[in-house]
């Protein structure tokens, strides 16, 4: 079988080899319900479980930022430690999605998905009983293990069950829409919990929702079987995970260290992390038989510039989520509940874009959509960077919310479809791990630099230093847009053969 990484080299010749009746059959298969689902309700339940898992991951990212001021007072969180409860969740998730993605490839998506949801439920429940900020950080870190398991396995399940075509596009678009919808719901519940209920209810309401997701998932997620023998890369795991944790920790904590980057434990931690990641790079490229992150997957056309641009894009999204909510509450002096209503366009816009994307991804070039999403991200952070002292909501904040929704929803949908479609079934766990690793590490990495920028410009006042963070976001968004415009060429997500079917057809054509 020809590996997926070479598929784009002979895609044109394969298209010529497919007759019109065969193409019509491929189009039909791309639109029909997968055979693994015996009824429509089984498919609906499955999709609900997968979409709700993304929803809950975003719920515990966004809403936590809203309730963090309340938690800071209730648990006595020092000013220099307030970014940690918010960022440690994304940091742990981003560092561990690659090992969990490999476990999904080894044992199947069902076990890792269900296990991740259950784990997430347990530590969300316990988090509501936190007695001090150290316990809160501990619970948030352990919470991060849940999404690290169920997010890559969820994308693995979606990518392996749905073949290329409009049905897959619609499901992935709805999956991406759950990011802003979950984000808004987290803010809403965070606002209600911070203003009208004990703060613990933010965690307990999330745990109640997770119990429902778990119940439906147990009934509807196909267990399936693993057709390919895949082994765990333990050396890669033991090097990549601590390396990422050390580097991102040093960046995140440098702004609050006594002497910044001159503080010994900061630069020692950073250098140690870089050395460990350098060792991981060597092991993955030249030592490991089954590397955790195979280099050959980056031979897929446009994969390298796409991943780099996504890293910047999701970093901008993380900066926007954190500082927009804090700017609205602490600078504009808007209460938590009203802040939630101000973010409502993200939820509505996400749902509209998901429905529109599901019906247009196979009609419009992915490059055009990615450029539009890049412009949306620039607009979102730029409007907050230039916002006046008494802003008009409809002139500044509303279009910023629409821009952020356009950016994250379209980017996530297009990139997910592209990556999962260009990798074979036995690498769908890897695809999910790569997607979510870039997402969460991008958020943690750039949020750390934004926090450093804010701390370094504290003399400008809260408004001025927050605007520095937004200008930093503008720069990162511009870099991402340039990369997409010049180096990323993603076509239409139309009905097509799977990687395995293309390999079989190529073998027939070449007589092998």
TrEMBL record:
Location relative to the cell: Membrane
Molecular functions per Gene Ontology: transmembrane transporter activity
One Pfam family in the UniProt entry: MFS_1
Membrane topology term: Multi-pass membrane protein
InterPro entries for this protein: MFS, MFS_dom, MFS_trans_sf
Domain Major facilitator superfamily (MFS) profile: 46-492
Organism encoding this protein: Amorphotheca resinae ATCC 22711
Keyword Metal-binding: no
Taxonomy of the source species: Eukaryota, Fungi, Dikarya, Ascomycota, Pezizomycotina
Keywords of this entry: Membrane, Transmembrane, Transmembrane helix
Matches recorded under PROSITE patterns: MFS (PS50850)
Gene3D superfamilies found in the cross-reference section: MFS general substrate transporter like domains (1.20.1250.20), Multidrug resistance protein D (1.20.1720.10)
Name the UniProt record assigns to this protein: Major facilitator superfamily (MFS) profile domain-containing protein
Transmembrane segments: 40-62, 82-100, 107-126, 132-158, 170-189, 201-222, 234-252, 264-285, 306-328, 340-361, 368-387, 393-418, 430-449, 469-488
SUPFAM superfamilies hit by this protein: MFS general substrate transporter (SSF103473)
GO CC annotation terms, alphabetical: membrane
